[in-house]
Write a structure and sequence with these properties.
Layout: E1 2-6, H1 7-12, H2 14-22, E2 26-31, E3 34-39, H3 50-65, H4 76-80
Parallel strand pairs: 1-2
Antiparallel strand pairs: 2-3
């Protein structure tokens, strides 16, 4: 749930507001009715998720092979002269 919290309310209740975020709530901070910031709990690092890690590794393998149809050196190593 995205709750709105004014800057004034945030300043007056920093500890309570941060406790809400720590418990998993996402808060939008407003000034004069306009959202100026969003506070949310930190997201999980993709390196800690085996499924996301596997997808990232597959993507890196594809990128290492280069993009089919490009003229000239396609891989990073070919373009930079590294790995030779």
């Amino acid at each position: 749930m995205n709750a709105l919290v004014s800057v004034r309310e945030f300043n007056a209740n920093i500890s309570a507001t941060l406790a809400r975020v720590e418990s998993g709530e996402t808060l939008k901070i407003t000034r004069n009715g306009k959202v100026i910031a969003e506070l949310r709990p930190p997201g999980a690092d993709w390196k800690d998720d085996p499924e996301k890690q596997a997808r990232a590794e597959r993507l890196f393998e594809i990128l290492d092979k280069g993009i089919p149809g490009l003229q000239g050196p396609a891989t990073y190593d070919e373009r930079t002269g590294r790995g030779h």
